[in-house]
Amino acid sequence: MSSLESVIELNDGVKIPNFGLGLYLLESGSAAELSLLYALKIGYKLLDTAQFYQNEADVGRAIKKSGVDRKSICVVSKVWDTNHGYEATVKSVKNSLSLFQLDYVDIFLIHSPVSGSNVETYKALLDLKKEGLIKSVGVSNFGIQHLKGLEEAGLPTPSINQIELHPFCKREKLVNYCREKGICVMGYCPIARGKCFNDPDLINIAKEHNKSVAQVMIRWSLDKGFVTIPKSSNTKRIQENMEVFDFKLTEENHRILAGKPDNSVVSRDPTTLPWEG
Ligand SMILES: NC(=O)c1ccc[n+]([C@@H]2O[C@H](COP(=O)([O-])OP(=O)(O)OC[C@H]3O[C@@H](n4cnc5c(N)ncnc54)[C@H](OP(=O)(O)O)[C@@H]3O)[C@@H](O)[C@H]2O)c1
């Protein structure tokens, strides 16, 4: 069974922990820093931020203050939609690095395929990787058409596709496509922002394992082989969310969850947008 220390090797050789902390809506400031410091202290090794979240500076400060070896932490950030294009991407990533006060970011993703400048944005990230400012280049919210678009443009396969994934949003076709192409699947909104906590089957499965519904949903992602990044700013829940390595869902649990309606996107869904280059 995987543990908090388990890592997945990406198609470019970079290693990513299979569990980490999501940071969307972690409001910048002293409270954010305390949440981050707490997570790092109890062993979180993967932090998922984005230019859009406006907390890259908090992440950098917490890493420094924590005293944890920088090399043991995997920082993920994302180029926001309005920073697409070659020059704007380079400028925005350099700005992220100065906010982080880090020499490099482990993984940079294109946040979403919203523009006709994905190819230029991607090329900029690849060049920043050559410069050593980024170790790995991936994407987020890319559908099959977008991944094919990058391939047809002759570009290297992204290391990661980060997409919404939980028992009510399984995206099997896209997940299978990523796996066929050697793209690591990273799932966001693993606990569906709490919107499915009243589901009677989830409640029963949680009782069976003496776990919370949130823990069952996070375990579902791990059992599926996804990198998972539940977000919490609350120390009790940051702790609770990592206590998922001492149990596994049964085949019957998985059978029940496989039968759940598969249509609940709780974030936005750019995966269905057309490819515009
Ligand atoms: N690439 C993208 O476009 C994209 C989109 C969305 C998300 N993401 C990434 O994925 C991460 C996770 O997604 P998300 O933050 O949207 O949703 P999520 O992790 O599914 O849910 C987070 C919500 O659940 C609450 N929560 C956390 N642990 C809990 C627990 N054990 N019991 C009850 N409630 C709990 C949190 O509140 P408290 O903080 O108060 O605990 C927060 O309101 C994000 O933070 C971000 O890093 C990426």
From TrEMBL:
Pfam families documented for this protein: Aldo_ket_red
Record keywords, A-Z: Oxidoreductase
Cross-referenced CDD domains: AKR_AKR1-5-like
Domain of life according to the entry: Eukaryota
Binding residue positions for substrate: H111
Xref: InterPro entries: AKR (IPR020471), Aldo/ket_reductase_CS (IPR018170), NAD(P)_OxRdtase_dom_sf (IPR036812), NADP_OxRdtase_dom (IPR023210)
Residues in NADP-dependent oxidoreductase domain copies: 34-257
MF-aspect GO terms: oxidoreductase activity
Site (described: Lowers pKa of active site Tyr): K78
Active site residues of this protein: Y53
PROSITE patterns linked to this entry: ALDOKETO_REDUCTASE_2, ALDOKETO_REDUCTASE_3
Residues in the signal sequence: none
Family according to the record: Belongs to the aldo/keto reductase family.
Official protein name in the record: NADP-dependent oxidoreductase domain-containing protein
Species per Swiss-Prot/TrEMBL record: Helobdella robusta
Primary gene name: 20201946
